[in-house]
Amino acid sequence: MKGGENFKVIPEFWNDMNNSSTGELLEGLAIDFGMLGICMHFSPEQDSFTYFIGIEKGAHGLPQGLEVEEIPSSTWAVFDVTGAMPDAIQDMTKKIHAEWFPATGYQHAGTPEMEVYLPQEISPNSAGYRTQIWIPVVKK
Prior knowledge:
The chain is of the alpha+beta class. It has a single domain (6-57, 69-139), classed as Regulatory factor, effector binding domain (Multidrug-efflux Transporter 1 Regulator Bmrr, Chain A). Helices cover 28% and strands 30% of the residues. The protein is built from 3 helices and 6 strands, in the order ααβββαβββ. Strands 1, 2, 3, 4, 5 and 6 form a 6-stranded antiparallel β-sheet that branches. The longest helix has 17 residues, at 87-103. It is globular. 14% of the residues are buried.
């Protein structure tokens, strides 16, 4: 994805996934972290990255057609987000990059970052929906 189109394309991707048999399969296999949105393969020169939807791999086998992507160990800045999706997570993402990074001594580590959609009995469209953004960071 390039230049901000992620704020349109990613919610469409989630909608497609949530209405598919793959989405149901992943939800059934999800453990502690629930569903994950993973941003990786960053290309600053092209202002682009790749986005995956997945789960934490547990002891279960990997269903056919799915693949494993290993997330390296990192120092994480974790941001709690509460509110209806996708607006709440998009607003927090913008604040992290526009306000938090410039105000701290940290920069993005360039490794995968995660949106953690915690298991809960509430609609993602609810004002009380909880999620987290995990950003890998290093000192400047």
